[in-house]
Amino acid sequence: TVRNQPRTTQEDLVNDLKAAGTIVTKKTIVKILCREGLKSCSARKVPLLKKAHIHARLKFANEHLNDSEDNWVKVLWSDETKIELFGINSTRCVWRRRNAAYDPKNTIPTVKHGGGNIMLWRCFSAKG
Question: Do the strands 117-124 and 77-84 form a parallel or antiparallel pair, or are they unpaired?
Answer without folding.
Answer: antiparallel
